[in-house]
Amino acid sequence: MANSVVILGVFVADTAYRADRAPRMGETILGNSFALGPGGKGSNQAVAAARLGADPRFELVAPHPFALVCFRASAGNETTEALAAAINAAGDVAVTPMQLGDDAIIRVSVGQSYTEAEHVERLWNLIDTHTPAIQEES
């Protein structure tokens, strides 16, 4: 039976303003244009955390109040380390493998301003694809 996970994220609009020059310390200047785009990186975080937290192959190992999600493979350190290496070998995404106490974990940021849902989906596909193969080898 799958775990139940409820993640509340927010999706908002971000605004970016342009001006002829950068303001000096303490100065307010008028912008000459702005761009409106998707924002609220909580939506990317919500997708990543929900997928990992609901899948028994993984454990979320730290709170994820911002855009950093830390997880590990339930199968242990060797599987987690091999998974991080396989993801990074893909070349179009990057995760940070590290130690948290005695546990190998994977840190991934899903909140960079250019990160879109398709990037989170690509990362999940790599995680999902490589985890079963790695666990079968162990």
Q: Could you characterize the architecture of this molecule?
A:
The relative contact order is 0.17. This protein has one domain: Aspartate Aminotransferase, domain 1 (Alpha-Beta Complex), CATH 3.90.1150.10. The two termini are 23 Å apart. Helices cover 34% and strands 24% of the residues. It has a four-stranded antiparallel β-sheet, with helices on one face. A two-stranded antiparallel ribbon has the order 1-2. It has 138 residues and is of the alpha+beta class. The chain has helices at residues 42-54, 77-89, 117-137, and strands spanning 13-18, 33-38, 58-60, 68-73, 96-100, 103-109. Helix 2 (77-89) crosses helix 3 (117-137).
Features:
two-stranded antiparallel sheet, 138 residues, 6 strands, four-stranded antiparallel beta sheet, alpha+beta, Aspartate Aminotransferase, domain 1
Straight-line distance between termini: 23 Å
How many separate domains make up the residues?
Answer: 1
Radius of gyration: 18 Å
Tertiary shape: elongated
What is the average per-residue confidence, as pLDDT, rounded to a whole number?
Answer: 77
Number of helices: 3
